[in-house]
Design brief:
Rossmann fold
Length: about 350
């Protein structure tokens, strides 16, 4: 895989129109706490989102009866277990209490799929659910994250077990994959806002599409030359695209860098970039160029969310195919110039 870094830009002038994502209402951050061992790290990530995006915080636990169906649940043990969970959630809330932010606790019981569905549908605000790696639904074969995706429009911050602690208490470098679509670019306001709050470097990454050339049998010189020509063109287009986005983000006070990556598999290329560049967080849209509305998340986003070794914030969006993106206002006369992202 070839990575072509661009210059790092320190943006300092005002963003056009002051459109840094302030139009969106505060989010509700739901932190799924399952074990005492994971509570501290999940709270760290969840509170970072709450501090950046505003809104209230809900500490959520799906109470597992631990029954195998052969024996009824002992009501005394159940009550003790519930009290332990209540104490854990209460301690987490107290440790992070803030007079300017509400932190509430919620315990799900019964059929957890139904409970999660009802709970998520009852949330009046845009919701981001913070989940640890491998959080499963009690007595269900599916994963908690997949259930949240299937049953709601909530975004997800998945925090892996290994390497999940925030370095120095923050995210030093945030990787944001964008592919030229309005859907992928829709995460930029949130990414800028979090980077600003965390004093992070924002790294924009574009993976060029593979240069498709029909071949049967042994590759010939013409095919090799054509593939090289298309690859070089794609790299130029990608770099120009990222430079245009970077220019439109001038004035946010956030350090912006870019990477144009040549890779046959965008999913694995993004994970490799995150590893090579020591990223602390990936922010990705649930859908990009393909934009298949019949699935909760696209193939790239789903793969990155599942396999990343660092936290991934996958932001859901319900955008129409014709919705404006960073270059939507570009005039068609003469040379196409970026008109600025719709932030």
């Amino acid at each position: 895989m070839l990575t072509v870094p661009s210059d790092t830009h320190d943006t300092s002038s005002a963003l056009e129109g002051g459109k840094t994502g302030a139009q969106k209402p505060p989010s509700e951050i739901v932190i799924g706490i399952r074990h005492p061992q994971s509570a501290s790290r999940l709270m760290s990530h969840g509170m970072a989102l709450a501090n950046a995006f505003g809104g209230d915080v809900v500490l959520l636990h799906a109470l597992d009866s631990q029954s195998n169906g052969a024996h009824p649940v002992d009501p005394v043990e159940w009550d003790i277990h519930r009290r332990d969970i209540e104490s854990l959630l209460g301690t987490c809330a107290k440790d992070h209490e803030n007079p300017n932010r509400s932190i509430s606790t919620h315990i799900l019981e019964g059929n957890c799929l139904e409970q999660i569905s009802a709970f998520m549908l009852a949330q009046p605000k845009e919701t981001i659910v913070v989940l640890g790696e491998g959080q499963s639904l009690p007595q269900e074969t599916g994963k908690f994250a997949q259930a949240v995706l299937a049953l709601s429009q909530a975004s997800i911050l998945r925090v892996p077990t290994v390497g999940a602690r925030r370095k120095g208490g923050g995210y030093a470098r945030i990787l944001v994959p964008i592919d030229g679509s309005a859907r992928a670019e829709s995460v930029l306001p949130r990414a800028v806002r979090l980077a600003s709050a965390e004093n992070s470097e924002l790294m924009l990454c574009y993976v060029t599409p593979p240069p498709g050339v029909a071949e049967i049998g042994v590759s010939d010189d013409e095919a090799i030359a054509l593939r090289k020509q298309v690859t070089e063109r794609n790299k130029r287009i990608g770099k120009s695209y990222l430079d245009g986005i970077t220019g439109r983000l001038a004035g946010t006070g956030v350090v912006i860098s870019t990477r144009t990556v040549v890779g046959e598999d965008a999913r694995r290329s993004l994970l490799q970039v995150a590893k090579d560049q020591n990223a602390d967080l990936i922010i990705i849209a649930s859908h990009g160029q393909s934009g298949h509305s019949d699935v909760p998340a696209g193939d790239v986003a789903s793969f990155v969310l599942k396999h990343s070794g660092i936290p991934v914030l996958m932001l859901r969006q319900s955008m129409k195919h014709a919705e404006e993106h960073a270059f939507s206002s570009t005039a068609s006369k003469g040379v196409r110039q970026p008109a600025g992202p719709k932030l």
